[in-house]
Amino acid sequence: MVSSIFHANIKFVELLLGAEPSNLNNNKKKWHSAFVTIYCSRALLSLNKKYSMSKSISPTKIPRSPSYTVVNLNPENGFEIDQMSLIELPKKKNLAQLRELGGVDGVAEALQTDAERGIDSGEKGIAKRHEAFGSNTYKKPPTKSFFYFLWQAFKDLTIIILLFCAALSLGFGMKVHGAKEGWIDGLSIFIAVFLVIGVSAISNYRQNRQFDKLSKVSDDIQIDVVRDGRRQPISIFEIVVGDVVCLKIGDQVPADGLLLEGHSLQIDESSMTGESEHVEVNQSRNPFLFSGTKVVDGYGRMLITSVGMNTTWGQMMSQISRDSDEQTPLQARLDKLTSSIGKIGLTVAFLVLVVLFVRYFTGSTKDENGKKEFDGSKTKVDDIINAAVEIIAAAVTIVVVAIPEGLPLAVTLTLAYSMKRMMADNAMVRKLSACETMGSATTICTDKTGTLTMNKMKVTNFWLGKETFSEGTYSSIAPYVIELFKEGIALNTTGSIYKPSSGSEFEISGSPTEKAILYWAVQELKMDMEEVTRGCAIVHVEAFNSKKKRSGVLMKRTMDNTMWVHWKGAAEMVLAMCSSYYDASGIVKDIDEKRKSEFEQIIQGMAASSLRCIAFAHKQVEVKEIEDSKETLEEHGLTLLGMVGIKDPCRPGVKKAVEDCQYAGVNVKMITGDNIFTAKAIATECGILKPFEDEDLLSDAVIEGEEFRNYTPEQRMERVEKIRVMARSSPFDKLLMVQCLKQKGHVVAVTGDGTNDAPALKEADIGLSMGIQGTEVAKESSDIVILDDNFASVATVLRWGRCVYNNIQKFIQFQLTVNIAALVINFVAAVSSGDVPLTAVQLLWVNLIMDTLGALALATEKPTDELMKNPPVGRSEPLITNIMWRNILPQALYQISVLLTLQFKGKSIFGVNDKVKDTLIFNTFVLCQVFNEFNARKLEKRNVFEGIHRNGIFLGIIGITIVLQVLMVEFLKKFADTERLDLVQWGACVGMAAVSWPIGWVVKCIPVPKKPVSSYLKAAVRHEPI
């Protein structure tokens, strides 16, 4: 048996190699024999091991040769490793299996990946990997279909009651009036109800689709990979197995994989395990990385081993559906308002029900022939039931009109519309509530770099010792010092340089600061990064973060095995670590107090010119010192190499955006990690501080993070509102400021881009993360992502936030006018004459106009400059303001008086019958709402037509409403229970409705107190002085 297996495998090996021994030359025969001998010996050992184990004999342990290669003799996918092994490797954290596969390098080799140059970016190679290992996407749960939303609309209690009434009306109508005429009323109610259901379902379905589109955009993260030796950003969905991915602080790990190389890499695995403790990932003990986790410290490069549904994260996400039913604070307040109005409507409907039943059973109501509808035992049971159904339908329809179901719909529509428009204005909303909360913001705490400035950095100043050097004069500096600079820049960086084989243009990647320093080193110092890194080996790295404001590296020179520490960071912090410095000749000089003061003045001078000042320092260390320090770098007794000043110009338009916010009553505070002089210079340039401002005012307005941190809680609360600039701040200082401002009653918006900004972004009322420089951790903690990192976009978000709130108030004003008028008219008519002038179908049509079409018309108004002239809306300010009540009550009273006049005197005024009179009431009522919709466009301005030509949606909806109303009156007589009107009657209806415009103009001339009416009522109840 052993022999047969042996010969079979020999044949397979020869087949795999594609050669028969007879066809080989002498050299190839030798190689072939050697290979077969090695393979056979391993096969025999393997068989011997299995045989021994089967006989329960302890096998002899034969160590593997130090250099071995795993050969997959059945390469089904074209790679030397199967998919299952790759999936199981990180999941089980199996180091023994990894060693068997030849370590991370062995896996990379099996995946045909060059650890330094990455994979080939050719389409065929990528397609081959997609086919073998899948794509980096996961199956999402099926999205809610249109029928789901249709069913949800059907389940509404009022809709169910109306459908029940429609069914009864249809049945009894056909029984009483016959099949030819009896179906009309019932079917009309059915059609009207289905129309309301359909519109509601379509609106909710479209909103859900909008959320799906936004989630696709927010999930599409840009990841840095190395392909063809070039570092380049690609979409997370384009990652394939075998890719080499670059990781830095704040990044999301895009797929499962293994660490190729890294320094001080700390991973937050809480999204996977729920454990808050950060996990250290290194090459020796724990090289396993998991999709969906976050990098909280350090940097490194990883090899992707499984993607998409083959990762734990992918399997988990495929089970989770995103809930787009998030209820915002404003929606919660509107629910309360809807509930209150609904209770009033129910009360009125119940009274109408009681009055109509009493009038019917007492014989007060008469039919078309003037006979009593109820005449005791003479009345048929069918007639009684039919009359009862009509009465119940009328009462239920009053409830439908009274309950302002359009309010939540208006919020949904205006939020969905504003989210779409904000996307075009470079702001991606992640949480709906942020749209409306932004309208109430009183303070914006903003970063400097990339938000107020352009984030396009360039080295403009270079100081060595106490001398400054301009471009082209570096030849006078000692070559030894230049070499030290090259070491400090090339090894202590998270950036990279790629030089294409054709052409001489370098491609530099990394953060803007790193790119500026690397570009300067290549252009001015003639640095060859590959040459420098070849001559040194990195031993340990301390990565940069916003708390330390510096980064360091411990390196070993291969030429002489000496160990050196290089530091780079904020100039005054690096200077504090130095005891000596180099002059241009390469001579080391001590730093005494006088020289330290001179260096501080140089730093302040650069900072006052809006430059970011970065210093470089180094020190040679002994091996014993390294062993004693236990992986912390030497921080004392360093030698200062030199300093560079980096210019980052302010963004164009940022000064105007800051002024717009200030004009709108919103305070703008700049919180930056830069030193106090740079911070003051930039803040003055942006308009946060005024030039030639009084020194006493400046001392209160500008502060350092450490000073603010060391205040007592009382001192902080006293000074926090005066502070406009905080320099040298840590993320904790930013969090502290947000907490203090919120305690003072402010609605705070905060911008942030770093991982350490996450607590402040979460604590703020509105967290604004940066789309370009922002880390994934920051984005996940924020409510809105500013896609272009520009402060002007923050000001635009503020405008949209105010617009959302304003549009909803417009709709509330419009709807309450309709509610009050409809309730009073039906109630008075029912009590006085026992007749409801507006039928169930007509009221449902009015409901459709004001709920859906009205919401669409008023929710899509764009922001105007007027919005930025008003102060922010406070948290406790009522939704229905005094101004709104001033606009609502006169319009409602006018509509009630006109329609009641038509109800009681319409027949004699126009000389018409009851049917035409009811049509006149219905037509006038609808046209009043059309004209009043124009009044609702402006809450305070008398000119309601301003900018109307720019709102095509509003004009379109008004046009559609008028056309449909003409159809209802003139052509759908049986459906709407109406009669045709002549031109004079149409003219009278339009004339009566048009009076709404002059009433609106006059009413807006009446001044109103700012204090809410409710506060006067509360004071009266409590017997307090007003």
From TrEMBL:
Database matches in InterPro entries: ATPase_P-typ_cation-transptr_C, ATPase_P-typ_cation-transptr_N, ATPase_P-typ_cyto_dom_N, ATPase_P-typ_P_site, ATPase_P-typ_TM_dom_sf, ATPase_P-typ_transduc_dom_A_sf, ATPase_P-type_domA, HAD-like_sf
Transmembrane residue ranges: 146-170, 182-205, 341-361, 391-417, 816-834, 840-859, 952-971, 983-1003
Alphabetical keyword list: Acetylation, ATP-binding, Calcium, Calcium transport, Calmodulin-binding, Ion transport, Magnesium, Membrane, Metal-binding, Nucleotide-binding, Translocase, Transmembrane, Transmembrane helix, Transport
GO CC aspect terms: plasma membrane
GO molecular function, one term: ATP hydrolysis activity
Top enzyme class: translocase
Annotated membrane topology: Multi-pass membrane protein
E.C. numbers: 7.2.2.10
Primary residence: membrane
Domain named Cation-transporting P-type ATPase N-terminal: residues: 100-174
CDD domains associated with the record: P-type_ATPase_Ca_PMCA-like
DNA damage recorded as keyword: no
UniProt keyword Cell division, yes or no: no
Annotated compartments: Membrane
Catalysed reaction equations from the record: Ca(2+)(in) + ATP + H2O = Ca(2+)(out) + ADP + phosphate + H(+)
Pfam families in alphabetical order: Cation_ATPase, Cation_ATPase_C, Cation_ATPase_N, E1-E2_ATPase
Recorded family membership: Belongs to the cation transport ATPase (P-type) (TC 3.A.3) family. Type IIB subfamily.
Biological function: This magnesium-dependent enzyme catalyzes the hydrolysis of ATP coupled with the translocation of calcium from the cytosol out of the cell or into organelles. Catalyzes the hydrolysis of ATP coupled with the transport of calcium.
NCBIfam families listed in its UniProt record: ATPase-IIB_Ca (TIGR01517), ATPase_P-type (TIGR01494)
Stated name of the protein: Calcium-transporting ATPase
